[in-house]
Amino acid sequence: MALPSVVVLPLLIVVAAGVYYIYNEVIHFMSQSIVRNKVVVITDAVSGLGTECAHLFHKGGARLILCGNTWDKLESLYDQLTNDSDPSQYNPVSPQTFAPKLVIVDFSDMDSMEDVVSEVVDCYGCVDVLISNSSMKLKAPVQSVSLEMDRNIMDMNYFGPSTLAKGIIPTMISRRSGHIVLVNSIQGRLAVPFRSSYAASKHAVQAFFDCLRAEVKEYGIEVSTISHTFINASEPPPEEGPAPKTNAVAAFIRSQLVHGVSPSVLANEIIQTVNRKRKEVVLAHPIPRVALYLRSLFPSFLFAVLAAGAKDSVLNEQMQ
After folding, report:
1. Where are its TM segments located (predicted)?
2. Catalytic residue chosen out of the listed positions 124, 198, 219, 293
């Protein structure tokens, strides 16, 4: 007896979602194994995304170099990683996890970058993976942004990441291997009103790493860029009490429907990008993706839409 379509269709959706969930779990496991014993540098490791990446790569057995501009926060993250690890994994003969090394990195102080690069390289003598994660945001009309603020944003979002990459590349070239991952914004490809300085810095760093990708390919070095809309400030609160295993698929589906990107989802994307050596990843919902196509195919239409949106925003502020 054939089942009615009203039953078959939801059943197929659940099965497909279950298969996709299992596939992602397998890929996640394989991605962790690929970073074992690799020297991984994470900038702005004390941010939400940086912390998620640190936990993920640490569990995978990477030799972490955690960078941040606050020593207290770096030490707190260090304690979390070492305390959460299984003590049985610390085997002096064949260690599975490694205590991370900490380096103060402040992209607002470009004069210190030469010493920073030396300190990072001296930790292990080489770098296998560089995850460039730091970012400074600003929302303001063009005329209200000072030249000093423009420069600060360019230091944080462009000159800092590019200078660090330049310093580490020679060690990768000498070993003819390495992977650099830029965690960028979709505004590196699509500028929106009231984000002029931020979008400009993201366009600049996107162009730099696109050029770098082509230049270092002959040395076996991979360069990846991950462009996302925005990172959710916090994860959704966990449900109280033990959750049945059947909720895993539903939770995964819900996570994909949330606007924006959670730090854990983005961290998983980063480790998968390292594993699969993807060149470019865009994490965005349909509307931003459509806007990217409009920018190339129908720019006048997109510009008109953005201008109308900017005008509405100004009117709303004047009425308040």
Report:
1. 6-23
2. 198
